[in-house]
Amino acid sequence: MTERHDRDGEVRSAVYRHLVETSAAPSVSDIERHLGMTRPEILAAYQRLFARRVLVVGADGETIVMAPPFSGVPTQHRVAVGNREYFANCAWDALGIPAALHAPAIVRSRCEQSGEPLTILVDRDGPAPEPCVAHFAVPAALWWRDIGFT
Amino acid sequence: MLFFRSEERVAEWCRANRVPQRPLVALSQLWRLSQAWYANRLTPEARRPAPAEMAGIFRGIGLEGSFWDPNADDFS
């Protein structure tokens, strides 16, 4: 493994660690502080991680929009774990957060058509029964054409 | 991927937004998908599944057909 890949892995881990510990996406300055890398090094790592479909970075090149299953920006999918609340990117990722954290969670979202609130209780064995379904609007082969709409 | 209270609400939403109705995923399937995709995501060696692995994961929870094929260009 190359030194560059090692550093990209460190950036990736630092982004996830910050998100898990604070519920918010890190700024570039946060990563600079954590890793002692320069801003250009971090922004270049973000681009490589985006190209590898590890992170989704905003048009400004520095805003972490997605570190799946976590969202770096507010969404309709809120996931409470312990005393923290995270935003998820989509229905799948809403269950992905308790799966990634290996922790019970309360997912609060909505029926996209009626707007009715949906609450899904998730323990370590999975979600409690709740009348709802997920709809994937885009075929798997096209997800990354616009990862914000799937 | 969005949540809906029922299949009827999905059909209404698809009509209103003029998008084709696609396969529905049950909550239990979504959980299995989440586990397969994300259970190791916070480990240093984590990586996104490759296309062949993705197809295997989908098949394993009953999501089959070209819609779920990451390499497909025919979604009928």
Largest interface: chains, residues each: A-B, 49 and 46 residues
What Rg of chain B, in angstroms, do the CA atoms define? 14 Å
What is the succession of H and E elements of chain A? Answer: HHHEEEEEHEEEE
Question: Overall mean pLDDT score of chain B?
Answer: 90
Oligomerization = heterodimer
Number of helices of chain B: 3
Mean pLDDT across residues of chain A: 93
**What is the number of helical segments of chain A per DSSP (H or I, 4+ residues)?**
4
Secondary-structure class of chain B: mainly alpha
Low-confidence stretches of chain A: none
What does the overall shape of chain B look like? globular
Secondary-structure-based class of chain A equals alpha+beta
User: End-to-end span of chain B in angstroms?
Assistant: 19 Å
Number of strands of chain B: 2
Q: Beta-strand percentage of chain B?
A: 5-15%
The strands making up the biggest β-sheet of chain A line up spatially as 5-4-6-7-8
| CA radius of gyration of chain A | 16 Å
Strand element count of chain A: 9
N- to C-terminal distance of chain A? 33 Å
Tell me the overall shape of chain A.
Answer: globular
Portion in strands of chain A: 15-25%
